[in-house]
Design goal:
Order of helices and strands of chain B: HHHHHHHHHHHHHHHHHHHHHH
Structural class of chain B: mainly alpha
Number of strands of chain A: 0
Helix content of chain B: 55-70%
Number of strands of chain B: 0
Largest sheet of chain A: none
Number of helices of chain A: 3
Radius of gyration of chain A: 18 Å
Shape of chain A: flat
Helix content of chain A: 55-70%
Structural class of chain A: mainly alpha
CATH topology of the largest domain in chain B: Cytochrome C Oxidase, Chain A
CATH architecture of the largest domain in chain B: Up-down Bundle
CATH superfamily of the largest domain in chain B: Cytochrome c oxidase-like, subunit I domain
Order of helices and strands of chain A: HHH
Shape of chain B: globular
Strand content of chain A: under 5%
Oligomer: heterodimer
Largest interface: A-B, 59 and 81 residues
Number of helices of chain B: 22
Radius of gyration of chain B: 28 Å
Distance between the termini of chain B: 79 Å
Largest sheet of chain B: none
């Protein structure tokens, strides 16, 4: 068995961190930060996703390089889709019907 | 040359074909070679259905007036010709038939990594095929193969939903094939078969699989959104509600342009096998040809909007896509030059497979170069939607992909069937195909240049001569296609028995008898040489093989690949969300305010708790704690159900408030928005369309996860999992965490847009 065994303590710590971050993100939404509302919300979501990915999904512990390659490829391809689509939408008039 | 030539075929020798008999032994087989033959029969059927429509199109175009069929029928004919040929023949053709047959043989494996998933992918293909044929027989589809909105969502009265569903299922089948290939190529190579010793066909299958995995899910979500828009009035592409039909085109071509490379890359792989064999030379520039395949797979994703230059996209973006489109020409040209360099001073035998490879090189080059005309903005404006485009892509797909497929079928037919086909008839058929093809499609270049638009059932009389030539060519082409089918069938009974290696070719597949035994090799081969190189000998590194561990790793890699496709599946919706939120921020803010932030937050908490129970259950399985495992799995299921229950309450309130897109949609702007922001209530439907599509598909994933865990709980209760075997728990856990991550992203995107007081 090569799979890493993670201690329950760490699992609970991640769990609490995720719950706290959920509370924070919901609370911060009511404070007017201007454009930073969106930035904070997305940063917290990314942080939570990374925590799940690294610890619950064991990405941090895997000795398998391919797993990281797959994750990075998926995100890279998503980036292609978003970035090249936006290349069109950010440079033509809004909502023309 | 290293080859096991000692094994001579004995008619009664046991092989994969005579191992078992009867329908059952075929329909329940997990042997990759038999599944390849199941695919061969299925795609041949679809090839002839699609070809039948093509002949009807050509017959109609024999005369300038619409005499054989009228406009409506003609629209259906070219639509169904395209859909069947693309999704039910070209995309699966080489990967599912020759790839299935050859990938394990070429890398020295007993089978693919997941034989049962391989069979499942064939059944999915058949289900898709039945749906498609049902759509065809009960009225057909008239949207073109491209399903462009708003015609497909709001106007067409044909079987759009059914055909869309069929292509969705067929896409799922190709994703599973691609996943199987990637894991097999990573995990199942024989000792000594290093990456740089892989046959180039394997490299091309690997590149094709990348596109299957990362492109197909975007097509799946796009067609899903079209189906939702038709069936449930979600309005994501509907211009009357502020939706953008061009967004459909962006998402559609994100898959469908790379899909061209799904069709052509495998053929390139075949040519890379045939050319060295029949010129008796090493391939010129092995690593460049291999990397060019990967390069095409990646660059292929950067060029899609060159299909949309005249559709109204921004000029600036069009410039970027035009430039990027030229990039793809580079790896394609590398391949063509390397094949010709391989032939240079080779000892060439003009056998049937090589004739097809020659056909491929010439016709693909013409198709590729005319593609550059279309990538050039100025020329493209002139020839868009003319027969020039039709001719161009048929030179790639028929002149390239089908030529390669036929060449490969001839090359490996002795291995597949254990019989030789008649060589002189083979050469004759190759010649007929080449002549018929050029006669059919070359006139279409001229027609397009002269301005004849595609997709019309009638045309001005001055175009008739060229159209008659084209129709005449298509009948010759049909003869060229029917001929091999007849002599292949004939050879199965009457053909000469084939030696293990009739061509004196390199490659592991030629070192086992023809046809191969069920498990491919008597002994796992040890590879000590490069592909196409017979002189170098070294000792393979000893690779410790642990079957359980290998299976665990293979399953885990398979799951991660599946999750990668899921990223792109949801990615299509994230893309739509991003664009509309950028365009319609006030409407999105107002729509978001109607959602209950606390229900959303509680649901996030519920899912996070379920992720904890899942993580702990994997740990419990690792330690073999059966009762704890069962308890944790049950807790996960309950938490999942709580999530779905809360979601249901939320949806129900949306119904009551008439916030569901469709005829009864109603929105009171002042109640939810800044009094001095001007918002368009119609456009808020886009927000709710995305809300329902995203949360709905997320909830569907939850339902699947709950079902999965219910099954696992049952097996855990039975004591199937222990510290040595807990892969299913681990993989279901990965899936569940992924679904959690999606929700973690959806929560701020949908609920937290504008909450500030």
């Amino acid at each position: 068995m090569s799979e890493h065994v993670v201690s329950t303590k760490l699992y609970y710590a991640i769990w609490i961190a995720l719950l706290v971050l959920t509370g924070v993100t919901a609370g911060v939404a009511f404070i007017d930060l201007g454009p930073f509302n969106t930035i904070v919300a997305l940063t917290i979501a990314t942080l939570k996703a990374v925590l799940v990915l690294l610890f619950f999904m064991h990405l941090k512990y895997t000795s398998e390089k391919m797993t990281s390659v797959v994750v990075i490829s998926a995100l890279f391809w998503l980036l292609i889709l978003l970035a090249l689509s936006l290349a069109d939408y950010t440079t033509r008039p809004l909502g023309v019907n | 040359m290293k080859m096991a030539t000692a094994v001579h075929p004995v008619p009664e020798r046991e092989n994969y074909l005579n191992q078992e008999y009867g329908v059952r032994s075929w329909l329940l087989t997990t042997d990759h070679k038999r599944i390849a033959l199941l695919y061969l029969a299925s795609i041949t059927f679809f090839f002839f259905v699609g070809g039948f429509f093509a002949l009807l199109i050509r017959l109609e175009l024999l005369t300038p007036v619409g005499d054989l069929v009228q406009a409506d029928t003609y629209n259906k004919l070219f639509s169904m010709h395209g859909q069947i040929m693309v999704f039910f023949f070209l995309v699966p053709s080489i990967p599912a038939v020759l790839g299935n047959f050859l990938v394990p043989l070429m890398i020295g494996a007993r089978d693919l990594a997941f034989p049962r998933i391989n069979l499942l992918s064939w059944y999915l293909f058949i289900i898709a095929g039945i749906l498609m044929m049902h759509a065809v027989l009960t009225g057909g589809v008239d949207t073109g193969w491209t399903f462009y909105t708003p015609f497909s969502t709001a106007f067409s009265n044909t079987k759009v939903i059914e055909a869309g569903l069929a292509i969705f299922v067929a896409g799922f089948s190709s994703i599973l094939t691609g996943l199987n290939f990637v894991v097999t190529i990573h995990r199942m190579r024989a000792p000594g078969m290093t990456w740089w010793r892989l046959p180039l066909f394997i490299w091309s299958m690997y590149a094709t699989s990348i596109i299957f995995l990362l492109g197909t899910p975007v097509l799946a979500i796009t067609l899903t959104l079209v189906i939702f828009e038709r069936a449930f009035h979600l309005g994501i592409f509907d211009p009357t509600r502020g939706g953008d039909p061009l967004l459909f085109q962006h998402l559609f071509w994100f898959y469908s342009h790379p899909a061209v490379y799904i069709m052509i890359l495998p053929s390139m792989g075949i040519v890379s096998e045939i050319v060295p064999c029949f010129s008796r030379k090493r391939i010129f520039g092995y690593s460049f040809v291999a990397m060019a395949s990967i390069g095409i797979a990646v660059f292929g994703f950067l060029v899609w909007a060159h299909h949309m230059f005249v559709a109204g996209m921004s000029i600036y973006a069009a410039l970027i896509f035009s430039f990027l489109s030229y990039l793809v020409a580079v790896p394609s040209a590398i391949k063509v030059f390397n094949w010709t360099a391989t032939l240079y001073k080779g000892s060439i035998t003009f056998s049937t497979p090589l004739l097809y490879a020659f056909g491929f090189i010439g016709l693909f080059t013409m198709g590729g170069l005319t593609g550059l005309f279309l990538a050039a903005l100025g020329v493209d404006v002139h020839v868009t939607d003319t027969y020039f485009v039709v001719a161009h892509f048929h030179y790639i797909m028929v002149g390239g992909a089908v030529m390669g497929y036929l060449g490969g079928m001839h090359f490996w037919w002795p291995k597949i069937s254990g019989r030789m086909y008649p060589e002189s008839l083979g050469r004759l058929a190759a010649l007929i195909v080449f002549i018929g093809f050029n006669l059919t499609f070359f006139p279409q270049f001229i027609l397009g240049y002269l301005g004849m638009p595609r997709r019309y059932w009638q045309y001005p009389p001055e175009f008739q001569v060229l159209n008659v030539l084209s129709t005449a060519g298509s009948t010759i082409l049909a003869v060229g296609y029917v001929l091999p089918m007849i002599y292949f069938l004939w050879s199965m009974r009457y053909g000469k028995h084939a030696e293990p290696n009739p061509w004196g070719a390199a490659g592991l597949e030629w070192m086992t008898p023809s046809p191969p035994p069920t498990f491919n090799f008597e002994e796992t081969p040890q590879v000590t040489w490069e592909a196409y190189d017979y002189g170098n000998i070294d000792l393979p590194k000893e690779v410790p093989v642990d079957d359980m561990e290998q299976q665990r790793q293979a399953a885990s890699l398979g799951m991660w690949l599946f999750l990668a496709t899921e990223v792109l599946f949801f990615g299509g919706m994230f893309c739509a969300y991003l664009i509309y939120r950028y365009w319609y921020y006030p409407e999105f803010a107002a729509g978001s305010k109607t959602l209950d932030i606390w229900l959303g937050a509680i649901n996030t908490g519920v899912l996070i708790c379920s992720s904890l129970t899942v993580a702990l259950s994997v740990r419990a399985a690792q330690f073999g704690k059966r009762k704890l495992l069962v308890t944790l799995l049950v807790a996960t299921i309950l938490l999942g159900l709580v999530f779905l229950g809360i979601k249901g309450v939320e949806w129900a309130s949306k119904f009551e408030e008439h916030h569901v897109p469709g005829p009864s949609f109603h929105f009171e702007p002042t109640a939810h928005s800044h009094p001095n922001t001007k918002i368009d209530p119609q456009r808020i439907q886009i927000f709710f369309s995305l809300y329902f599509a995203m949360t709905g598909i997320h909830a569907l994933h939850m339902v699947i996860g709950v079902g999965l865990f219910a099954v696992l709980t049952f097996y855990a209760w039975k004591g199937r999992y222990n510290s040595a075997y807990y892969t299913p728990i681990e993989n279901a856990g990965l899936y569940w965490h992924f679904v959690d991550i999606i929700w973690i992203c959806l929560f701020p995107l949908l609920y937290l847009i504008d909450r500030k007081k």
